[in-house]
Design goal:
252 residues; 2 domains; six-stranded antiparallel β-sheet
């Protein structure tokens, strides 16, 4: 196999291993091989091979017959992350809280992990009708305002490979997304209308650290509660909030 092809194959395998690890969460701390293979649209033979590697390296443990859980290695890794200094989440949290206090809608902090958008923190709206985003749950990179902000930050070649890998996207839709993300990358924010959930509006802006996009700050809420002037005010809150977090990261 030529060297560039070997490198691509290795990167793809590493990405799949990380996707497997991201399938574990508090709601489903144990997973079976068949369950994981179905969730990731992966052949069972490949899934067993990746699980074997994860078990050999101590990242997962087998519990019962064919069931797996994350090992205690992740407790150590979580401790290392906390000890590493003030995190993005720590820096962003006061801004999320301030935005929710100001506009009354749910504020979100979303990062790109591989080819997924992942909510890493949120502050809920005080309203009875509110959004239910699960921190740590992977989402697509082409639906929703935060996802498209993160998609726009990807290198062009990787972005094209991601879009080509999404079978639900037709060629005209992929072309339109490419056009859209060029604009998003230039202005640093975007809106969405009912892309993730029907009747939900969202706006997100890029957070940068030393010029590199590291996350998206977003607000989302039901359209029936948000008139045009409400949305315009929230857009400014989100853009200003992302700039505030960016400034704090640059000074850290």
């Amino acid at each position: 196999m030529p060297e560039p092809a070997r490198r691509r194959s290795g990167a793809e395998s590493a990405r799949k291993v990380l996707q497997i690890l991201l399938e574990f969460d508090e709601e489903r701390p144990t997973r079976g091989a068949a369950d994981l293979a179905a969730a990731l649209d992966m052949p069972s033979s490949s899934m067993y091979r990746y699980l074997s590697v994860l078990r050999e390296t101590g990242m997962i443990e087998e519990v019962g017959t064919g069931e797996y859980r994350l090992s205690w290695v992740f407790v150590r890794l979580a401790g290392a992350a906390r000890a590493g200094g003030r995190s993005l989440e720590d820096t962003a949290r006061p801004v999320l809280e301030s935005i929710v206090e100001d506009c009354g809608e749910t504020a979100l902090l979303i990062k790109r992990i591989g080819w997924s958008a992942v909510c890493v923190d949120r502050v809920d709206s005080p309203h009875h009708v509110r959004l239910q985003f699960t921190p740590g749950e992977p989402m697509s990179l082409h639906e929703g305002s935060a996802a498209r902000v993160l998609l726009a930050s990807m290198p062009a070649t990787e972005r094209r490979r991601y879009l080509a890998s999404a079978p639900e996207l037709t060629e005209p839709v992929r072309d339109q997304l490419e056009t859209d993300v060029e604009t998003i990358g230039r202005i640093g924010w975007t809106e969405s209308f009912g892309e993730v959930d029907d009747g939900i509006w969202g706006v997100s802006a890029a957070i940068r650290d030393q010029g590199r996009v590291v996350a998206a700050l977003g607000v989302a809420g039901p359209l029936y509660r948000l008139q045009q002037n409400d949305r315009a005010r929230i857009i400014q809150l989100v853009i200003s909030g992302a700039e505030e977090i960016t400034g704090a990261l640059d000074r850290a």
